[in-house]
Amino acid sequence: MSDLVWMDGRVVPEAEALVPVSDRSFLYGDGLFESLPWNSGRVFRWGAHWERLGAGARFLGIRIPWAESGVRAGIRAITAGRLDPLATVRLHLSRGTGPRGYSPRGADTPRLVVTVHPAPAMPPGGWPALALRTCRSLAVAAGDPLATHKSANKLLNVLARAEAEAEGFDEALLLNTDGQVTESSSGNVFWWEDDTLHTPPLATGALPGVTRGAVLDSASDLGWTVSETQASPTRLAASRGVFLTFSTRGLVPVHRLDADLLGIDPRQSRLQKAFLARCDQEWETV
């Protein structure tokens, strides 16, 4: 983490950036977060991230206690003078503190914290392909409106990822209670079938990822057909290739799904180039 943290409108040293044990995001996961790629004073699709945070806050009934301009100023303050050009900025919104118990009554002072972290370093040859394991012990509730918001409670994702790693896999594939693919434990899912690029619809329980949206736009730039498709893991295993999208890494191919080895569709490199070209155009100065 950076030596500095922007917390409730103040820039403080990391060691002093403390929250009370009565904070509701600590007690109940009662909050939201966003992770944004940062590049030499610019962030990728700031507007989309801020809009998603705002949508989640309205759904949870949490007031964002600072204007957008103030938060951007906070990001500038804690990233000023960074020598490394790439980082990840994290916004964390909590309902704040209140009386003990599930009721949000009395929690009237939301807390907003901004931190900055080193970005994962991409190897010279690009991100290595991932091994993906279908999680069968846990499932996203079909139709759950919470699934479309980036809440601070990610226990399902944590446990699914732990199961996958315990079996030697890199990521977990999450299904909903209808057995449909939703997303991975930390990214969105895409796959190729014939002339069409597919991704699960948000209604399955997938998060509306900002990078997901940029990939959909990049495919449109190339004139490709994209379909939001309900699918089982078996359909992905029979596809021409699967890849995941992450805010911090972009597009990463999958070389294995459970016991099945997967190829990498040759269109992947074209889409990657189109995505990077769009990124070059959409970095926004903080």
Written description of the protein model:
It is a single chain. This protein is α+β, with helices and mostly antiparallel strands and 286 residues long. It has two domains: 4-118, D-amino Acid Aminotransferase, Chain A, domain 1 (2-Layer Sandwich), CATH 3.30.470; 130-285, D-amino Acid Aminotransferase, subunit A, domain 2 (D-amino Acid Aminotransferase, Chain A, domain 2, Alpha-Beta Barrel), CATH 3.20.10. It contains seven helices and 16 strands. It has helices at residues 24-28, 46-60, 68-79, 155-166, 210-221, 233-237, 267-282, and strands spanning 4-7, 10-13, 31-39, 42-44, 86-94, 111-118, 130-134, 171-175, 181-184, 188-193, 196-199, 225-228, 241-246, 250-257, 260-261, 283-285. The strands form two sheets. Strands 7, 8, 9, 10, 11, 12, 13, 14 and 15 form a nine-stranded mixed sheet that branches. A hairpin with a 2-residue loop joins strand 1 (4-7) and strand 2. Helix 5 packs across helix 7 (267-282). The longest helix is centred in the last third of the chain and has 16 residues, at 267-282. The two termini are 19 Å apart. The mean pLDDT is 95.
